[in-house]
Amino acid sequence: TLTLAVMPKLMEYGVPMLVETSSSGKITTSGNPWIFRISPTSEMEAKAFASMAKKMGIKKADFLSTNNDFGLGAAKEFSAMLKGQGVEVGTMETMDPKATDFSAQLAKIKASGSDTLFVTTAVEQITLILKQAKEQQLKARIITTGGSNSPDQLIQQAGDAANGSFHLVFFTPWFPEAVKNPDVARKFVAEWNARKYPVGGLTEGFRGWDGINTIVAAIKAAGKAEPQAIQKALWNVKVKGINGDIAFIKQGPAGKESAQNVPSVYVVKIVNGKVAKN
């Protein structure tokens, strides 16, 4: 939502922007050639999860999403992917980004009788949803999307209520050997821990590392701090990122394409207060 809001100014001033978090498909399909995104779109995330959905044997799914482009976009893409697999989609509930009471939505979801609940929002609301779902004895497994869920924070803040929940993440600091560039991942995690940064920030902090290194590579290739030169250079960068190799493909209308990287997506589960491989 915030990224979409500033995009017209990029066009007005002719300045490239590297996007390392936002997931709305509109960002790279609206015809803004100054956009370079390294995080996955909701569509990419849903497609990556498709094979995992089959393995989990999901039969009926409900959705609880924050009422903005982030949440609504994820619900749209994941529900479409599931329907394509023959999965029944039940209730699709939304919530205000600042809400703290989800009892009404969870009551409807419980009555739906689904086996899976997809949740898309920030870690603060996920914490409350996990706690309130446990209070209501919700039997559906909970899967969070969007990569901004910080499982370590959920363990600290939600306690036992986090056990059994699944989370889509774009970096697995608990298992650096699982990513495409484990040497880069191990170095990043070691430096993060050496500086005594909060462990829960690793699943967000890596985005900044990948983003800044991509920008640095483009500036070096451009040879000058000129927006058009950096824009041109970004199209040709090849960076060994924590989330995999960073390079851009074209998305959007011909002649006004935005740039999109194709990053990795992983699923982890919280078991007995620890993050485990799914």
From TrEMBL:
Keyword Signal carried by entry: yes
Domain of life: Bacteria
Domain Leucine-binding protein stretches: 3-271
InterPro entries: BCAA_transport, Leu-bd, Peripla_BP_I
Sorted UniProt keywords: Signal
Keyword Signal: yes
Pfam families linked to this entry: Peripla_BP_6
Family from the record: Belongs to the leucine-binding protein family.
Matches recorded under PANTHER family: LEUCINE-SPECIFIC-BINDING PROTEIN, PERIPLASMIC BINDING PROTEIN OF ABC TRANSPORTER FOR NATURAL AMINO ACIDS
Protein's recorded name: ABC transporter substrate-binding protein
The organism of origin for this protein: Candidatus Muproteobacteria bacterium RBG_16_65_31
Highest classification ranks of the organism: Bacteria, Pseudomonadati, Pseudomonadota, Candidatus Muproteobacteria
